[in-house]
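Sequence only, no structure available. Ideas?
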Amino acid sequence: MGLDIEANKKLVEEVLEAYPKKAKKDREKHFQINTEEAKTCGTCALKSNIKSRPGVMTPRGCSYAGSKGVVWGPIKDMVHISHGPIGCGQYSWGTRRNYANGTLGIDNFTAMQITSDFQETDIVFGGDKKLEVIMREITEMFPLSKGISVQSECPVGLIGDDIEAVSKKMAKELEMPIVPVRCEGFRGVSQSLGHHIANDAIRDFVLGKAELAETGPYDVNIIGDYNIGGDAWASRILLEEMGLRVIAQWSGDGTLNELEIAHKAKLNLIHCHRSMNYMVEHMEKAYGIPWMEYNFFGPSKTYESLRAIAALFDETIQENCEKMIAKHKPEMDAIIHKFRPRLENKKVLLMIGGLRSRHTIGAYEDLGMDIVASGYEFAHKDDYEKTFPMMKEGTIIMDDPTAYELEELAQKMNVDLVGSGVKEKYVYHKMGVPFRQMHSWDYSGPYHGFDGFKIFAKDMDMTVNSPVWNLISKKEKVQAEGASI
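Reply:
I predicted one. Tokens follow.
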């Protein structure tokens, strides 16, 4: 059953009425109500991947965030230098919960932030010499580091530091891979360009630089999974139980060597299409490796994806797949039986990155929850073309929504749950609206696979049905009456 198309059109119009005429005209292009025509014919008229309107509160990140925070940062056995002022390096300190095996500071550097800490003199005279010194210090302090990446911040691009020349010189001196990444924050319209730049750096400096001693017909890569709360581990368990061999994880719990040998796989399995599609398309063209997008959020989509993956291999893998699904299905059915009655028909508003707003739909629907509005921070047109068929008629679909728009929609639609990022989290807490942080799982996880769904279902129930929301409503009511509690 769909939502009321005309009512939601009117609702969006009402929300946008608060803007000046020019701003309203601009923001109207970033909203579209899902219809049967849009679902079946792919008529996506919604504008995306263009600059946010100046003066509004956008939830987007920058190019540096896309490269350092997403693609390169989780590579655990390399040191990643934030080249520029201290602010960017400090802000990126361990906020994404990219779990990784190893000992911190010895062979795992994911939670460490190394910065060149630009001062005024560096802006005036350049930071090239300082960068050389830092690289030498890194090899002395962290002798087990397999390489270094240089993640350039805004001032580096403005003053013209030659990080490529420095990296080339120091790679020869230190005898290790050093990768310059031109991901200055001001480049592009969002973190999406940072993903692309990071992919290009992997392609140019790392991919294909090593060989795999033994290869087999079941070798696959997990691409675009950043192991938030252990997601990649939960996914890998299923693939290996099915009989496949994962030779590389990009980039959660990943290593430099895994990037170097990934070209030997027989299939690329891509989770976050938006951040890594550039790489799988390159590997298909350069090495003839096919790829497919998969979705391990919720049992329905997990079953569907496992069968689609197995279909690309022989009967042995296909039989293993069915046995594995049969083994796990009773437990998944029991989880749904337990939590669905508590979550049935609860209304959800999602606004997440460039992937999860469509990938998590199945998990919510398995629990009987309704997605009434959904959008992305930095999606492109092809992301929306994949999203429309997954949504019910009448769903509000939005691109780069402002803080004001999200708050108004949540209130006017009387949603039961908002799933978004940490920047939005505390606003909804103060509004008394249940909220899950769907960028890094609110200190929980994993959410992928069968292990993850058990946690996901519990977390959604715990959030929506927590008695704390009644206490917030009571407090607001008493304060409105001029009393106190």
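The mean pLDDT is 94.
Hope that gets you unstuck.
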